[in-house]
Amino acid sequence: MSHLHSSQRVPNSATSSQDHIVAVVVTYNRLDLLRMTMEGIRQGACRPDCVVVVNNDSTDGTAAYLDNLEYDIPLDIIHLSKNTGGAGGFAVGIDRALFTHQADLVWVMDDDTQPLENTLLASYRAWRDYSVIRSERPAFVASRVVWKNGLDHPMNTMRTMFGATRRQHQLAQKVGGRPIRSGSFVSLLMDAAVMRRVGLPWADFFIWNDDFEYSTRLAHHRHAIAVDDSVVVHHTKTFGTTDADPGKRFYNDVRNKIWVFTRCRTLTPLEKVLYSGSTVRLWCSTLLRTSKKKKYAGYFYHGIKSSLKPFRSNQDVLAGAYDFSDVRQQCVSCSSPEQKFSVLMSTYSRDDARFLDRAIASNTVEQNRAPDEFVLVKDGVLTPELDEVIERWCARSRKGEVCPIKVVSLPRNAGLANALNEGLKECSYDVVARADADDISLPHRFERQLPELVGKNVAVLGSSMFEVSLDASYIESERHAVLGSEQIRSAFAHRNPMFHPTVIFRKSAVEAVGGYEEVPGAEDYWLWSRMNAAGFVFQNIADSLVKYRTGAGVYTRRGGVGAFTKDVKVQQTLYNGGMINKTDFVTNLGVRLVYRFVPVGLRKKAFRSLIGSGQADNNLRKEKCS
Q: What is the pTM of this model?
């Protein structure tokens, strides 16, 4: 059961209107401390735009207090019918923040956390100032946690990340922080885009280590920082680490840590060795120091025994108490073939100005169904030739000869994924067509694709495409797309069945899973895989609607150590994200190992035999290119 207090929104001068911050508080039978937490949030120099409070079936008057609370920040109060622990409460609250309140940032805390005046402000500023490129900002910012005596709380002291790069240290130091690998749900400000990519905390952890698992999942191959200027007080009963008389919670600590080390993919092998060593030391300390050795030995035994079974899904744990959001509901249904749409393109300094000019023309004035908007991202400083092409097209747009053109300028090269995320934010319409700066869309591309997407249960629609010579005068091959939604779904475990330069998609669906993420050479594959796992529907059109420039050396670049190293990173990303299993991981790398190191000629034949038509009749090729 939930209640939304829709009190008037108080302007938040400390944050921009684009950064919608939602606080999440989980409470259970600590009414006096909860009052302190809520007052701390309200009196902050920077305040969230909404506060989600999850009441874990408290019996001490908490429900009545919350239902009658006069608060000048909008409240969303969720009363659960059973105590689901901190893990369950945060899973519910975060789900609500992400998919009901559309948060940009989520700030979480327990009901024994006391935020101070500058807690949120310092965390937000550190996150914001970390990088001018939004997608490069930390996955989370952890506050400094002190006890009632003002000393750093040993239970919530974040260690500086082992093996952090020089760049990570420099970026963190610039905002008064340091790189870390894990954080505590005692004031953690998290990037909602990253949260949408990795999912929710595991409710079955109940208490302890759910924040450790979730924060390490968020920060897996991403930056995270702790900021000393952001301070909260943690009002625990005792001043100590988890080995200081944890009671029955020792069972949860043992079970949950073993789950993290054996059933989760959030830690690298080296990290598992380091963290498990530290964990064993704490367990030994607990067992040796307690006067209730027999009871604690029982907790230890049952914790190990319970860890042999996998943890349950959030839906199973919260069945009958809370219905989790279906991210597919984020997908806006389009009902008319006349649906307006944007074209999204990114260009950087190494692009050819002639190709960019041709690409813009083929996706605007040459289309039978012209787009309603063209969004072009300048990924860093461009050459004068590229800038001249862009300005010429913008001038034509101002005259009304071309659809409205939005130019998004990034101060430095941020990579394709980050550039596309920045451009996607500027797209005015839910339907977005992707186009590359060196490829050519055939005149009937959008006319053909729109009816297959709008008004249908399809989130991403691609097509086949032609491989053409560098000057686009000669078709070398035709790449055939995988057809049928089920065939596409099954193909994701082994290869990317969608050709990125041909796709048209729903912006709402892409944003529901956190958008693009930097995975060199596979930004789109990682995005589609997450969307596929979330249940979104993919389709392809058999017709070739795009001319994809290959040019000299394209198949040479697909071979060698460098290409295989990227393969390893891509497969690791898919495996760590739960998209493939160990068998898929080994099989995929085995196939790619052979492919990357065979002679170039054989590599070309193998690739084209897999997804292309190979050599076509010369007359047919010339006819199709004309």
A: 0.88
